[in-house]
Design brief:
By secondary structure, the chain is α/β, with parallel strands linked by helices. It folds into 2 domains: 5-125 and 298-315, Rossmann fold, CATH 3.40.50; 127-291 and 328-343, 2-Layer Sandwich (Dihydrodipicolinate Reductase, domain 2), CATH 3.30.360.10. The chain has 13 helices and 15 strands. It has helices spanning 14-23, 39-49, 58-62, 79-88, 103-116, 130-140, 162-165, 167-170, 174-190, 292-296, 298-311, 319-338, 348-351, and strands at residues 5-10, 29-35, 53-55, 69-72, 92-96, 120-123, 147-155, 196-204, 217-224, 229-235, 243-250, 253-258, 266-268, 284-286, 342-343. Strands 12-11-7-10-9-8-15 form a 7-stranded mixed beta sheet. Strands 3-2-1-4-5-6 form a 6-stranded parallel beta sheet, with helices on both faces. β1 (5-10), α1 (14-23) and β2 (29-35) form a beta-alpha-beta unit.
Length: 352
């Protein structure tokens, strides 16, 4: 890459740290500005990561003449407002998952990006995880024959930030937070040309009644038009650390990915500091994950988005993909209430 792509980061929290780690090994990039509503948090983030400029409004960052790509690493309810600001400034955009709180918001984000004529990337890390990409390569090679079913589990003991627990503001609970990963992974494994027809879902608040009105456990069964299925388990009540697992079954074999597994095991009696996302213990038997951002997919996705921006191409994961995921989850929440299969409603004007 012969040029430097300059990036502005909206957000100075936990996921923003992961984006900085993911960009660390992407050549030809520089994060030149970051934003937080708190000046103190913005400065602290900039100090830790060596970012030159800090802003306390999204408008200021998006009006920065050096910023070419705006990375949105904000709570769910701020994604649409951030896209409105970035699109008005004609900035390329990358947005964390889920794209929005619902399909209606996601559709507006797609339209804003299109009208602005800018690149838009949907930062769904799961489909950029090296493990998951290798699994897809094996599927494409015919190694497991015709793909039949997918089963996925995304689980931990609960979100780290308070905004996740406010289901009304966030747009949902564990299913929105974690099911967005597995829905897009299923589309990636099966192939996006195979449309999701309908879904059946269950969800309940089983443990965290004192913290949220949203579901802390959920199960989602999605069905393609050709009848094949994908099953998701999502949980905010699983003790013992993060679970990120996919099981892909075909007529000639199966593939299992376990992204949160690690080859390091240690028994310690004093804390060694940060070990992995959502670790529930820092002494006793612990399982640290080296180069966590790369393992989860942050490095590969950011490299892909930057390369697409330089080449003037649209990424393989964009806001349309995020809109489809949100629409699937909208149907899932409807199914939770109805107790029936619910059709996934996709507006062809949005998907193009």
């Amino acid at each position: 890459m012969n040029r430097v792509v300059r990036i502005g980061l909206l957000g100075s929290g936990f996921v923003a740290d992961f984006y900085m780690d993911g960009l660390r090994d992407v050549p030809g990039t520089e994060v030149v500005a970051n934003y937080s509503r708190s000046e103190e948090r913005a400065r602290e983030f900039g100090r830790r990561h060596g970012v030159e400029r800090q802003y306390t409004t999204m408008e200021e960052l998006c009006d920065d003449g050096e910023v070419e790509i705006v990375v949105i690493a904000l709570p769910n309810h701020l994604h649409l407002p951030a896209v409105r600001v970035a699109a008005a400034a004609r900035k390329a955009m990358v947005c964390t998952k889920p794209l929005a709180r619902n399909g209606h918001e996601a559709a507006e984000m797609v339209n804003l990006a299109r009208e602005a004529g800018v690149m838009h990337g949907y930062a769904e890390t799961e489909v950029f995880s090296p493990d998951v990409m290798r699994a897809r390569q094996m599927i494409e090679s015919g190694a497991i024959g015709e793909l039949l079913t997918v089963r996925a589990r995304e689980a931990h003991s609960g979100p780290h930030a308070q905004h996740f627990w406010d289901a009304e503001t966030a747009g949902g609970g564990a299913l929105l937070d974690m099911g967005c990963h597995t829905v897009e992974a299923a589309r990636y494994f099966f192939g996006k040309e195979h449309r999701i027809k309908d879904v059946f879902a269950w969800g309940a608040t089983m443990v965290h009644n004192d913290r949220t009105t949203g579901e802390d456990n959920a199960v989602l069964l999605l069905r393609l038009e050709d009848g094949r299925t994908s099953l998701t388990e999502a949980s905010w009540t699983a003790k013992g650390g993060m679970e990120l697992r996919n099981e892909v079954y075909g007529t000639m074999g199966r593939i299992i990915t376990d992204t949160s597994s690690t080859r390091i095991r240690a028994f310690i009696q004093q804390s060694a500091g940060y070990l992995m996302e959502k670790a529930d213990a820092d002494v006793g038997w612990v399982f640290p994950i080296p180069d966590e951002a790369r393992v989860y997919g942050y490095h590969e996705e950011m490299r892909h988005f930057v390369e697409c921006f330089v080449k003037g191409e649209q990424p393989r994961e964009d806001f349309v993909d995020g809109y489809i995921v949100n629409s699937v989850l909208d149907a899932a929440y409807k199914s939770m209430k109805s107790g029936h299969w619910e059709a996934v409603l996709i507006d062809s004007k949005v998907t193009g």
